[in-house]
Amino acid sequence: MLSISFTVTLISDSELGTGLGTETVNDLVPRDSNGNAYVPASHLKGLMREHLERVFVLRSWNRGLLDAVLGAEGTLQGSARMGDAVPTADIGIRTISRTSIRESGTAEAGSLRTSEAIAATSTFNGTLHCDADVGAAEDVAARLGLKLISAVGGGRNRGSGACRIDIAGELRSPGELLVELDRLIGKWKPKDQGAPVTAVALSGSSAVWYAVVFRADGPVCCPETPVVGVNHLSSGIAVPSSAVQGAVLTRLNSVAPGLASACFASAQFRCWPLLPATSDVSQQIIPYAVRVSLTHRISKLRDVEGRHLYLDEAIEPYLWTDVRRGSSMKGSDGVLLREATGRVKVWRTAEMPRIVTAHGVHAGGRNLYSMESLAQMVYSGFMAVPEAAAETIEKMFHSDSYLSVGKSRSVRGGGRIELRRIEASAFDSWAPAPRGAGQVFVVQSPLALPDGPLPSCANDMLSQLVQASGLGTVVEAHASARVVFGWNRSVATAHIGQTQRLRATRVISPGSVFVLESPVRDLEMVLLKGIGAGRDRGFGSILPHPGVATSKFERELRIPVVKSTDEAGKWALNLHRLSVAQGRGPTPSQIGALAAKAAQGLDLAKASEYLRVQQKERPAGSADVWRSVASELANLLAKEKSVVCRAFRAWQDLAIIHRESKRERTI
Questions:
Q1: Segments of 490-632 assigned E as strands
Q2: Per-domain residue ranges for the chain?
Q3: How far apart are CA 485 and CA 224, in angstroms?
Q4: 233: closest CA among 82, 83, 371?
Q5: What's residue 148's pLDDT?
Q6: Does domain 2-185 have CATH number 3.30.70?
Q7: How far apart (Å, rounded) are the C-alpha atoms in residues 2 and 80?
Q8: Considering the domain 207-425 in this protein, what is its CATH number?
Q9: Cβ pair 127, 80 in contact under 8 A
Q10: Would you identify the CATH topology of the domain 429-544?
Q11: pLDDT for position 196
């Protein structure tokens, strides 16, 4: 898989809308969880498709190549995947207001519309990943699609959002890329999806264990329930086990199809869900993330020292009367983060950052929908693979660690995966024994319930399922049950009619917890085997309880400081600071007089003469007010007249604001 790095440079202000607004602004620009604006990958890919489709039609080219690169509705996704283009530095955000004018020259009632825009000269960096060789037809088509983009955002037909896209190391013009693609497309053939696979026998029965870290490049959306009657997709907090194993096996299938099939059928292969571990993508040491148990509680209020109280009744029963008055215990849905020191923190679901976006799709008619995704962050999980496949998988991800997961994964859900070998014995030190004996396990992925009559209580369902798996006697269970669906484009069994949706399954939900009467003898084998059926769908994974939390995970908020990209504004701010620092500077009226002189004539001669008179011919007291800014003014007057005039007016406004604030403080 090759990576194509590119830069988007705005030539004019871009109205990159989200479809979301406020009471005063009708359309906001896309922002991440830290408030930084970006160019959505879905928008860039849509523009690539629009331009390439026009070229393919005009040239009468084989559309199969276009579908192979960008995908086609109802088929497997294309080879091109890209992430959002992120700003290279602080950028400016402006507001643009428009209204409709009647024939009489008055404004049309209710037509006023205000939208945000990203200032011209802003630059964004992005990366496009393509499952192809360098110089192949897919590679050239992807580069041509990027180069053909000349504007981004709304109002492109009015000159808004004009941009230039530069590809790192690419010196060919769009015309040269077009000629090259014209030469390659005649030889291009689609990949043979039905090629025979040579079976591989995996020798030995041991497994290699990995701690998995996934550093997402942008938002990730993994919906837990199907959309029925609404147009809103909402992501759960986990990248499901099925998605993890599907992504890993798909990559492995591209290099060793037989080995991928053998791993899928092996009892030594299992993936656990990836769970949020930190919002700081630069953090190097990542804690283990485990779905929090249903029995884990956190006090509603902090104590006198500002700390929360944490309890877990599956490990140690507690009395409600022992809990401090006014600080009731509440469920702590989310993840438990176990650090290398053994310290455990809880990260609650409600405090995980999310991104909401709105989309319009043209497919046999316009339809709108919104998507709620988890913001860019780092995920943690586990994976076990047969020993015979470990070296191949490690080399594969060492050469190219890029992976994409979740909904619309060609434009979101991309990131880098890291594998670190661990021993299964590492789980032995987790969670103290409850009541001095036994062992506590937390369900990580859904546990499939068998068909037929079941107990009416979810706790009894879980107990029955665990004991049927041979883990031992369950002395306590806390569970919830629900129905899950699934989609699979390649497996033809268990489908509903002609759709790609798998049959609904009754399951025990992740976060359910059970306590065994005595510890298991072979923990590694228990974790590999899991509980119940449905291994092929990622069902059945469990982990030992990681321990009771001692503190909350406090996400560090990074409030962006947006600096002006206007040169005149920078000069004005510096002049104002110099004036205030000296305690005495030109008054607003003096600055206004200077601005008026600068606006006269074709050059700045009158402004220079005005300053000379003020500093040389006026009384000493009057001349002193200019002393603190004299040097800076001399440098400013060497700039273009338009910059100087705007700088003087902005300086005057700052001086007026400063004067009024001094009056208020005095009063």
A1: 501-508, 513-516, 542-544, 551-552
A2: 2-185, 207-425, 429-544, 567-666
A3: 8
A4: 371
A5: 95
A6: yes
A7: 10
A8: 3.30.70
A9: no
A10: Immunoglobulin-like (2.60.40)
A11: 60
| pLDDT of res. 336 | 96
- Nearest CA to 93 out of 557, 646, 561 is that of 561
Task: Note every long-range contact of 626-634, with CB atoms under 8 Å and residues 24 or more positions apart, other chains counting.
Answer: 626/585, 626/586, 627/582, 628/578, 628/579, 628/581, 628/582, 628/584, 628/585, 629/575, 629/578, 629/579, 629/585, 629/586, 632/571, 632/574, 632/575, 632/578, 633/575
Phi and psi at residue 290, to the nearest 5°:
-130, 140
Task: Give average pLDDT by consecutive 10-residue segment, the chain, 667 residues.
Answer: 91 86 80 86 92 92 88 73 87 82 75 86 92 90 94 88 92 93 88 64 83 93 73 88 92 89 92 94 92 91 81 81 68 92 93 84 61 92 94 92 88 92 90 78 94 88 93 92 69 45 82 92 93 91 94 72 62 86 80 86 86 83 82 89 85 79 50
Judge contact between 333 and 348, C-beta under 8 A. yes
> DSSP string covering 432-487, please?
PPGGGSSEEEEE-S-EEPPSS---SSHHHHHHHHHHHTTS--EEEEE--EEEEEEE
- Same fold: 2-185 with 207-425: yes
Contact 351, 555 (CB under 8 A): yes
